[in-house]
Write a structure and sequence with these properties.
single chain, about 220 residues, alpha+beta, Cytochrome p450, two-stranded antiparallel ribbon, two-stranded antiparallel sheet, binds protoporphyrin IX containing FE, metal-binding
Length: about 220
Amino acid sequence: MHKEIAGLHISESDVFVGGTDTTSTVLEWAMTELLRHPIIMDKLQNEVRGILNGKQNIADNDLEKMLLLKAVIKETLRYHSSIPFLARITGQDVQIMGYDIAAGTMIIINSWAIGRDPESWEESGKFQPERFLNSSIDFKGLDFQLIPFGAGRRRCPGIGFAMANIEFALASIVQKFDWKLPNGEKEEDLDMTEHPGITVHRKKPLLAVATQYCF
Ligand code: HEM
């Protein structure tokens, strides 16, 4: 069924498709990067376990204090923009950076490439969540170097829901379990091949061994 929300046509299947694969893909990439960077995993577990102090249920105001958790998720969204291509059709003739673009042209914006652009990001090829700790750059569509949710009127309407899901899930799994790669696999051997598609997920699903953490 299609509904009109603020003049935009959005169907229930748009919401379902837009909201499931994307969220799980971001979580899988976040865990991949944490397994590849054990020092960051350690720092994150210290932050989450310290703030929760043995409490099993995570509340909204606990998440507000988890600054490294938020930075890890932002860095994952920068480095692994899960919906890489945004599409727009120009409503009138425009000139962008010296290029004349006729009305009715479809423009494809590659948010994956923007997230890795060395002109926008220092050490763009490295996973460094700390870059966001003292930065006001956010993913809400106002900072054009970080647009994993798009920008403008058609940007993702599910940002709040997505972030709540990812923050709760990631905080919970790093609080309650310690994680390592299976069969003595080393961080540097972790296969990072991407599977291109509407969402860019891991080509091979991530395998990790969980050990329950004793509080
Ligand atoms: C990390 C998770 C998510 C990511 C990375 C993501 C990303 C995106 C992107 C890039 C777009 C296109 C925006 C544009 O063209 O400017 C989009 C659209 C959309 N997203 Fe999300 N999304 C996520 C989660 C969700 C969730 C949880 C929901 C619903 C509960 C949702 C619902 C939608 C819908 C309905 C659209 C179409 C909006 C329109 O056409 O106006 N998304 N999303």
